[in-house]
Design goal:
Chain lengths: 112, 114
Amino acid sequence: GDSVTQMEGPVTLSEEAFLTINCTYTATGYPSLFWYVQYPGEGLQLLLKATKADDKGSNKGFEATYRKETTSFHLEKGSVQVSDSAVYFCALIQNAGNMLTFGGGTRLMVKP
Amino acid sequence: DTEVTQTPKHLVMGMTNKKSLKCEQHMGHRAMYWYKQKAKKPPELMFVYSYEKLSINESVPSRFSPECPNSSLLNLHLHALQPEDSALYLCASSLRQGGFAEAFFGQGTRLTVV
């Protein structure tokens, strides 16, 4: 079956540092890929998405590129802020699929 | 309006109580979902409704009973829950089931069973 693997956290960074959160997947075909963010005590918010190979999703300074050759969708941000502290989930869904497959989540802590 | 609204935000219930969680969206989405999320874990799918019909039940115990009265509303009826059912319950919706259509999540209901 499909699966998503994320780097284990927590990831602790200083403000303005560069962020990378690794995400790799195992799936047949060409699934759609997503990054969701969950702030403390809240639900999940869609951060960005990509629906085909080489697509780059971007939002709020975050970016991720759909790499079919390495089955990866790594999340990056050039300069993190304290307000980016949250849990980040990588996820996929098959085009004919019924449900999201989530990675385990990565907690990001940004210190002033 | 890209909002999925869940009520209540917090709920404490005894093991003999009956309660309901409610979810509403007005985005014209025809797929709606219930997820359960335990602390420090990703959400786990419970139920999927597509065009107001139950399409997926992920082997959820019968003490959880979903209902979709119309295309905008989704309920989760709770009865005789156990303490291990305490979790964050998330509702989500998407334009339709399947790929390309991203899911929008509500803020969740934090349920505590005592």
